Amino acid sequence: MSIPTTMRAAKVGVDKHYYDLVTLPVPQPKGYECLLKIGAAGFCHTDTMVLEGVFGGNKVIGSHEPSGTVVALGEDAERDERVKLGQRVAGMLKRDVCFECSDCKLVDWIYCQKGLNSGLDIDGFFSEYAIVDSRFCATLPDNMSFEQAAPLTCAGLTIYKAIKVAVEKKGILPGKGILAISGLGALGHLGTQMAKAMGYTTIGIDARPGPISLANEMKHKPDLTIDASKVNVEKAKEMINDLRPKGYFGWEGVDAIIMCADAVASQRYAINLLVPHGLMVIVAQPPTYTFEFRDFIFKDISVIASMHGNEIQLQECVDLCAKEGIRTETTTFTLDQHKEMCDAIHQDGWKGKAVMVFE
Ligand SMILES: [Zn+2]
Ligand SMILES: [Zn+2]
Q1: Closest ligand, as measured to the CA of 97
Q2: Shortest CA distance to 326 belongs to which of 205, 181, 183, 215?
Q3: How many Å lie between the centroid of ligand 2 and the Cα of residue 95?
Q4: How far is CA 249 from CA 170, 177, 244, in A?
Q5: 6-152+310-357: which CATH topology?
Q6: Ligand found nearest the CA of 115
Q7: Which of 356, 352, 104, 91 is nearest to 218 (CA)?
Q8: 122 C-alpha vs ligand 2 centroid, how far in Å?
Q9: Where is the Enoyl reductase (ER) domain (predicted)?
Q10: DSSP string spanning 39-56?
Q11: Which pLDDT tens digit goes with each residue over 23-55?
């Protein structure tokens, strides 16, 4: 496969809302890196924060959600044989992870403070070619397109991991216990499909009609969707109670709730909807979360946060989505349509995920 010397890319510009189209040298992989011919790259909410300069204003190529074909390997990657030339893969944003710090050794490399994040600290994937770490790649089943794979590397993986954390920590089993997802945007609509496909009783909550109907249009739709702008917590608890098995003895509400919503009002709604001793898993990144001591001391709720997963969970997530027909609602744009892409996600009625696709 002949690789050109230069490539086109969308780089964070001076303007706080748009990218600049630039031509750059094609990077060369070293060590465990591999070079991808990008097939698709997702546009995440975090990318808009990078454009606005929230992460220090690095002028990097946007996107941290890559999928593509392996076209060159660094010397360690070649020896390692985790990925091969010509293979279709989904990659991850982290590079230059140390594998020696406390985070790497005691918890998970995803927390490595020395690792660099593509699309935030270093160049990302809105480019014809890009570097990823071959050790963090998932191989794509034949029936999964690049366009469907790219959103799984961040949005999909993050919600997949959060579901695993919620069900494991709260002891939710298929048919036993109720899991809710608050916010049915890119993460949430993937999450309700995954949770249902895994067999859990699943509630989707949003206050906007678009995302609610999106979740209900999917093959794996939630057992119940709640429009928080119309249904108060007491009524919502009654609706949820109807999903409990006959003879259920316990509290009213949901056993665990995953927060994918930014809205402040969604936080209190979620806390009130939780059963006593319930679990909230934080995924969304609003500036603050507001809790009261009563929530913890008397109601005894637990709050934990969850970040995107590692390469093992990425492969599980990709395989689950391919096997179960779990789909991301996508709208695609080409590199030349980068401005339209940036505008589209702010328009009324926007739903799902914007993905940049390459030839
Ligand atoms: Zn992201
Ligand atoms: Zn480390």
Answers
A1: 2
A2: 215
A3: 11
A4: 17, 11, 9
A5: Quinone Oxidoreductase; Chain A, domain 1 (3.90.180)
A6: 2
A7: 352
A8: 17
A9: 13-356
A10: EEEEE-HHHHHHHHTTT-
A11: 999 999 999 999 999 999 999 888 999 999 988
Q: What is the pLDDT of residues 56-71, one digit of tens each?
A: 888 999 999 999 999 9
Residue-wise pLDDT for 322-359, tens only, equals 999 999 999 999 999 999 999 999 888 888 899 999 98
Give ion ligand 1 contacts, CB < 5 A: 44, 46, 154
Are the C-beta atoms of 3 and 129 separated by less than 8 Å?
yes
Q: Please give the mean pLDDT across all residues of the chain.
A: 96
Task: Give the Cα separation of 159 and 194 in Å (integer).
Answer: 9
The stretches of the chain forming alpha helices (DSSP H) are 45-52, 75-80, 102, 146-149, 155-170, 186-197, 209-217, 233-241, 264-273, 293-297, 311-324, 338-344
**How far, in Å, CA of 358 to CA of 20, rounded?**
17
**CA of 169 relative to ligand 2 center, distance in Å:** 26
Least confidently predicted of 48-57, 116-125, 227-236? 48-57
The ligand with the least distance to the CA atom of 101 is 2
Distance 153 CA to ligand 1 centre (A): 8
Measure the CA–CA gap between 279 and 300, rounded to whole angstroms. Answer: 9
Ligand nearest to the CA of 63: 1
**Alpha-carbon gap, residue 348 to 196, rounded angstroms:** 28
Task: Tell me which CATH code domain 157-305 carries.
Answer: 3.40.50.720
Distance from Cα 177 to the centre of ligand 2, integer Å: 36
CA of 175 from ligand 1 middle (Å) equals 31
pLDDT confidence band for 256 (50 / 70 / 90): very high
Give the integer Cα–Cα distance in Å for 102 and 279: 27
Starting from the CA of residue 114, give the closest ligand: 2
> Taking 80 as the threshold, does the pLDDT of residue 1 lie above it?
no
Q: Give me the percent of the chain exceeding a pLDDT of 90.
A: 92
Contact at 8 Å (CB) between 313 and 90? no
Starting from the CA of residue 283, give the closest ligand: 1
